Amino acid sequence: QITLKESGPTLVKPTQTLTLTCSFSGFSLTTPGVGVAWIRQAPGKALEWLALIYWDDDKTYTPSLNSRLAISKDTSKNQVVLTMTNMDPVDTATYFCAHASVIIEGLYIYKWFDPWGQGTRVTVSS
Amino acid sequence: DIQMTQSPSSLSASVGDRVTVTCRASQNIAGHLSWYQHSPGKAPKLLIYAASRLQSGVPSRFSGSGFGTDFTLTINSLQPEDFATFFCQQSFSNSFTFGQGTKLEIK
């Protein structure tokens, strides 16, 4: 059974750097076709994908936040860390991590997120 | 960026009804679309991936269809536990964007 759990501060001040940890079990981030993604949801807003790290250490970020985000993995600890610099009140949201699957079928590469963690709420306020 | 537009943004239905949610991509994404169900305070749950493939353990009353730019999530015979918000998500490029969500409420 795959499980993921997010952890980190519940309150950060504007301009500070947010560091979130996703601790997971039930899979290895060295297995081909596996990744871990970060997604957030601001109050009353849609889900927003932030970053994804793959088994081969390839990383991808949402373009609008690319300069502020960094994702890394520690395979020995089964953890993925997301850092977001220069936090602003608009970054107040629930942050989720999720297991990502990648399969290749002919010309197509399918990707999806499942399962997800329960999320951790982060408030940005002075 | 590929934009995903869902409709309707909200929907009222009764237990036993059949409902349809649509998702339109701003460009051709082939079959690179997933559907998720999200209830308040819970982790989002994958329902459909690759546009039409039912995730293991998801009831067969959920189905997905579509290819290219237009996609549909259908729920047959609504059950009380189905009332939630549904999101589509594209994964065509090495980037992932979600629709704005469709809130399904009990009539």
Note down, in words, how this protein is organized.
The complex is a heterodimer of chains A (126) and B (107). Chain A has 126 residues and is an all-beta fold. Chain A has strands at residues 3-7, 11-12, 18-25, 34-41, 47-54, 59-61, 69-74, 79-84, 93-105, 108-116, 120-124. In chain A, strands 2, 4, 5, 6, 9, 10 and 11 form a 7-stranded mixed beta sheet that branches. The radius of gyration of chain A is 14 Å and the shape is globular. In chain B, a hairpin with a 3-residue loop joins β5 and β6 (53-54). The termini of chain B are far apart.
Provide the low-confidence segments of chain A as ranges.
Answer: none
- 3D shape of chain A: globular
Encode the helix/strand succession of chain B as letters: EEEEEEEEEEE
Mean pLDDT of chain B: 95
Main beta sheet of chain B: 7 strands, mixed
What gap, in angstroms, lies between the N and C termini of chain B?
36 Å
User: Helix/strand/pairing class of chain A, anyone?
Assistant: mainly beta
Largest interface pair? A-B, 24 and 26 residues
Query: Judging from the principal axes of the Cα atoms, what is the shape of chain B?
Result: globular
What share of residues are in beta strands of chain B?
Answer: over 45%
Portion of residues within helices of chain A: under 10%
Count of DSSP helices of chain B? 0
Query: How much of the residues of chain A is beta strand, in percent?
Result: over 45%
- Biggest β-sheet strands, sense, barrel of chain A: 7 strands, mixed
Number of helices of chain A: 0
For this structure, the quaternary state is heterodimer
| Cα end-to-end separation of chain A | 40 Å
Taking all Cα atoms into account, the compactness measure Rg of chain B is 13 Å
What's the overall average pLDDT of chain A, rounded? Answer: 96
